Amino acid sequence: MAIQTQELHPGFAAEASFLDLSRPLSAAVIAEIDTTFDAYPVLVFRDQRLSDVQLRDFAARFGPLEIGRSAARPGRRRLAIPQIGDISNLDEDNNVRSLTDRRRLDSLGNRLWHTDASYMPVPVVLGLLHAVTLPPPSPFGNGETEFADMRAAYDALPAATRDVIDPLTAEHDVFWSRAQIGFTEFPPGEREQYPPSRQRLVRRHPGSGRKSLYLSAHASHITGWPVADGRLLLLDLNSHATQPRFVYSHTWRVGDLVVWDNRWTMHRGRPHDEDKPRDLRRATTLDQGSTLNEAA
């Protein structure tokens, strides 16, 4: 079957024609979806009703799945499957977390522009986020997720700037990104478990050859540069890449499944009513190797 798309943001985000993703899909359909990401790194599937098992199984058709930092911690979890990330404001007993809850404060780092798990030596590719429960609209915001097109942002840079940044690498550190919002209370041993990793600042699409910025709130400085100079460059590039012309803002509906390619996008969550339940479930596929091994 041919997947039809309706563009939501030119050349970047699209809504896919309805597929019941809870049902087994042929290899041909999976390949077609995968190819669609080359044109639209953000793809929206509406009206899905997926169990965590179905979400995991669908995501696994695109590659091995990550077990995220939160799921890797010892102790009781709200969700039974470790490959499903709990992107909610709910505790292990399905109660809304208090504003001072440590896990809630850690998760607020997701409101910074970031690329998932770029602090890992081998980062991730696809992120799949499924909306199960949403709070009503409120003055705090509606919990939108914003996505920035890092390919278009790279293309819009002056040629001289592109020449300078193409060979650079940045050090990515999850503890740096969390410190930006004042959160430093990590479990013992977690800093040693997730040391900083270097990543290319510019990546090349393996199919089209198109180049893309690879930025994240986790990026703390440029390798080999004075820290201050590197941070100023990263600040300038982030400001450039998140201009409204490069950004698609997704307003969630229950049943939405949004899939994005972390190699060519950044994203961030927006505020919502913290007094009401908000429950999204995420699966993430792993890349095959370090960005340092990619062609420049």
Fold and architecture overview:
This protein has 296 residues and is of the alpha+beta class. The protein has a single domain (5-288), classed as Double-stranded beta-helix (4-Layer Sandwich), CATH 3.60.130.10. It is 22% helix and 24% strand. It contains 8 helices and 15 strands. It has helices spanning 27-39, 52-60, 102-107, 150-155, 159-165, 174-179, 190-193, 227-241; strands at 5-9, 13-16, 42-45, 85-88, 124-133, 145-149, 169-172, 197-200, 202-204, 211-213, 219-222, 247-250, 257-261, 265-269, 279-286. The strands form 4 sheets. It has a 7-stranded mixed beta sheet, covered by helices on one side. The chain is globular and about 50 Å long. The chain starts with a strand and ends in a 10-residue tail after the last strand. The mean pLDDT is 95.
For this entry, give a set of tags.
296 residues; alpha+beta; Double-stranded beta-helix; 7-stranded mixed β-sheet; 3-stranded antiparallel β-sheet; 8 helices; 15 strands
Oligomeric state as shown: single chain
Shape descriptor reads globular
Order of helices and strands: EEHEHEHEEHHEHHEEEEHEEEE
Task: Report helical residue fraction.
Answer: 10-25%
